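Retro notes (design track)

What went well: tokenization of the new backbones is finally stable.
What didn't: we kept losing track of which sequence belonged to which structure.
Fix going forward: every design gets posted as structure first, then sequence, in one message. First example under the new rule, 239 residues:
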């Protein structure tokens, strides 16, 4: 993922500061802002389209899983994107695609369904994005890997999670990345993950001194709403 002398900087749902997250405007702004790429979320619609959306609901309308993409997009004012559109916008960039799967959510779709849909799309993907696929769900990652085995996997960890145990789970999956919340990290935690063969990409941090501190720990990537602030904290120049 990283041939730079600093952590990779990924926009959280695009360059979302001051913009609608997961929108065309946010994704188109990543490269001009100097970001290396973007993190975004995918969910399956009723008609089997992967929509790029974080929440399980389109506000004021209903659950993503219970409506067609066209109806959801109309309810979202035309701002909803298909994954294929986002891959085109971000062509040539580093992309973290998160498979959303939480049984407690409204309109839950089993992780295997979303994972298979993503796997089919990426199996035939011919663009130049540098893609890795992440989830809080181990089952989602396992299902994805059965369809498209050539993509690195990353296991997300919840705030307050037992990081060494989650690293063991990531290793068992054959994952390349562990993605802890930044509050879980210190130098020892990052070193432990690295010693276990895992790269560390942390979320979601928008405070310059903390980003600089995370870099001093040796993290490999930072997910942020503030690409500009992150680059400044890392001493990077925007071309």
């Amino acid at each position: 993922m990283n041939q730079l002398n600093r952590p990779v900087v990924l926009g959280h749902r695009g360059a979302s500061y001051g913009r609608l997250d997961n929108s065309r405007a946010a994704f188109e702004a990543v490269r001009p802002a100097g970001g290396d790429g973007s993190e975004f979320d995918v969910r399956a619609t009723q008609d089997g389209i992967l929509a790029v959306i974080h929440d399980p609901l389109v506000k004021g309308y209903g659950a993503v899983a219970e409506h067609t993409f066209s109806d959801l997009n109309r309810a979202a004012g035309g701002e909803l994107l298909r994954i294929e559109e986002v891959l085109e916008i971000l062509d040539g960039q580093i992309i973290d695609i998160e498979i959303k799967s939480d049984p407690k959510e409204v309109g839950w779709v089993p992780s295997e369904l979303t994972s298979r849909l993503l796997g089919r799309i990426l199996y035939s993907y011919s663009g130049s994005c540098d893609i890795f696929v992440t989830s809080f769900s181990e089952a989602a990652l396992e299902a994805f890997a059965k369809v498209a085995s050539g993509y690195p996997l990353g296991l997300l960890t919840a705030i307050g999670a037992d990081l060494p145990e989650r690293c063991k789970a990531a290793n068992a999956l054959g994952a390349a990345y562990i993605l802890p919340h930044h509050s879980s990290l210190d130098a020892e935690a990052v070193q432990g993950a690295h010693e276990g063969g895992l790269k560390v990409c942390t979320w979601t941090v928008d405070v310059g001194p903390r980003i600089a501190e995370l870099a001093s720990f040796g993290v490999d990537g930072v997910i942020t709403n503030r690409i500009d602030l992150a680059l400044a904290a890392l001493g990077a120049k925007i071309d």
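Added context from the reviewer: The chain has a mean pLDDT of 95.
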